[in-house]
Amino acid sequence: MKFKNTSISFLVMLLVFVACFWKTEAQRCIVGRLRGQDGTCNQENDADCCSADEEYPTNTCSPPVTGNTRAVLTLNSFEAGGDGGGESTCDNKYHSDNELIVALSTGWFNKSKRCNKFVTINGNGRRVKAKVVDECDSTMGCDEEHDFQPPCRNNIVDASRAVWNSLGVPRDRQGELDITWSDA
Ligand SMILES: *[C@@H]1O[C@H](CO)[C@@H](O)[C@H](O)[C@H]1NC(C)=O
To answer: How far apart (Å, rounded) are the C-alpha atoms in residues 27 and 80?
Structure first.
C-alpha cells in the first residue's frame, strides 16, 4: 500500500514537471521592459511617442492563434515618411496605404513565417482579407527605426487605411478596434 502511494505521487510529480518543461520549451516567451527615449514621432495616425520618463513592456510571444483570434486593430501607414517607420520587413519596400496590408505583433509574425500570407479580419460586422507585409515589433521600440514609438502590444493587427475602409469604419473612428482574425 505504502509503496503504491509513493509511486503514484512520484508519477504525478513527474507529469507536472514534464508538463511545465514542455510549456516552457513550446513558448520560450521573453517578457521584459525597455526605457523610452525622447524623439520625434509621426503622429498622423494618433501614434503615441516614447518618453524618456517611461518604461514600456516587451514580449516575444502573442496569444495562441485559433480560428478566431482576438486582437486589437490599429492604424498604420506603410508609406515612405509615414508612421510605420522603415520599409516593410517582408520585402524591404514601402507600400501604398490603398493596399490591403497589415503588420502583426512579433509573436504572430512568427519570425517572418506569415510574410506574404493572407489573414482574414472580422470587425465592425464585416470581413476583409489582407496580406501580412510587416512586423509590429513587440520586442523593440523607442528608436529611429521604430519612429520613436513604444514596442507594439503583443495582440496587434496594425492595418493600412484600406483595411479600415473595407471594414466600413468611418475615417473619424479609425484608430483602435476590437477584432478577430485567422489565417486565410
Ligand atoms: C510559427 O510557425 C511554426 C512553424 O510553421 C508553427 O508550428 C507555429 O504554430 C507558429 N506559431 C504561431 C504563433 O503562429
So the answer is: 35
